[in-house]
Backbone:
């Protein structure tokens, strides 16, 4: 089931990153009482509304949370018959009460929104210009530019269930052979909503080479959730990462060298003391190529990256330093 809370438009991504802080879901208890009919989309950022649903004036719905702790604009409510049942409604469309009357829509007010599978994961966040120095012929590298999102932000490589041997769950041998041979264009297309596919094209430039097919087949099939949820969760984590002091440091140091100590300190600033100890740097040819961010917990619409980092075990820092490559090929 697709969970709400995934970014939907490039313009929002850019504004998100520039503000320097990620939007945070604020869990709430109680009941939302609709004062009038209002759209109830599954995602406030893309206004996707499967079933074209709306609240009914006078009806009550279990209250799950707000889209941010301060100056919230929307509440998340539960509409049990909807698919997905977690929906968003503008705050101005109704009012809240401490508890739902018997027979109100949704579960008991204290029931939390669903979360993804609990486990250990690695969020692999790449620096795309460094990747392109070594893969200049790929479509995503031939088309890179100074204006594209991945010239200034970390890009999604993948979200990998741990241990690393946990791959290709339920995948046929023929598909595995094709994947391992790099014939990703021969792999089955991944079933995603139009909005998630659009988000992925921005944050995972490798989709131009069918990277999402590879990532789903090798890692996503072991995630324990549908492809829509798998990529939505990864996009949500990337949004929080790029909107944090870590993303700000990366953008500020383009063309310059950054050390593991500096990056780990930025993670501590963004996500709490010790968060940086869960991050390993990968370098190639003197360039910072990727951050491998170790996580533990259940990933979902209400998940905070800080909690996932703090629950994970410390790891070695990897390479000690690397230059943050600007877009465009080095001579």
Residues:
């Amino acid at each position: 089931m697709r969970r709400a809370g995934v970014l939907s438009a490039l313009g929002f991504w850019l504004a998100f990153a520039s503000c320097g802080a990620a939007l945070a879901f604020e869990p709430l208890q109680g009941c939302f009482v609709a004062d009038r009919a209002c759209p109830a989309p599954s995602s406030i950022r893309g206004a996707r509304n499967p079933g074209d649903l709306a609240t009914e004036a006078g009806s009550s719905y279990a209250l799950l949370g707000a889209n941010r702790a301060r100056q919230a604009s929307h509440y998340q409510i539960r509409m049990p018959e909807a698919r997905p049942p977690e929906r968003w409604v503008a705050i101005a469309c109704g009012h809240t009460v401490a508890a739902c009357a018997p027979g109100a829509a949704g579960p008991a007010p204290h029931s939390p929104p669903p979360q993804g599978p609990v486990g250990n994961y690695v969020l692999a966040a790449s620096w795309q210009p460094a990747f392109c120095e070594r893969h200049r012929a790929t479509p995503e590298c031939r088309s890179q530019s100074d204006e594209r999102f991945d010239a200034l932000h970390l890009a999604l490589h993948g979200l990998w269930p741990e241990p690393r041997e946990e791959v290709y769950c339920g995948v046929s041998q023929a598909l595995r052979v094709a994947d391992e041979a790099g014939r990703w264009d021969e792999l089955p297309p991944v079933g995603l909503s139009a909005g998630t596919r659009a988000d992925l094209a921005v944050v995972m430039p490798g989709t131009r080479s069918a990277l999402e097919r590879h990532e789903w087949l090798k890692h996503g099939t072991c995630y324990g959730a549908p492809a829509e949820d798998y990529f939505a969760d990864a996009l949500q984590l990337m949004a929080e990462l790029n909107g944090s002091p870590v993303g700000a440091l990366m953008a500020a140091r383009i063309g310059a060298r950054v050390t593991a100590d500096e990056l780990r300190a930025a993670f501590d600033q963004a996500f709490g003391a010790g968060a940086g100890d869960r991050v390993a740097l990968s370098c190639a040819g003197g360039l910072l190529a990727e951050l491998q961010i170790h996580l533990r917990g259940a990933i979902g619409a209400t998940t905070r990256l800080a909690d996932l980092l703090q629950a994970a075990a410390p790891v070695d820092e990897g390479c000690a330093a690397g230059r943050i490559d600007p877009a465009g090929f080095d001579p």
About this structure: The mean pLDDT is 85. Residues 271 and 306 are 4 Å apart (CA to CA).
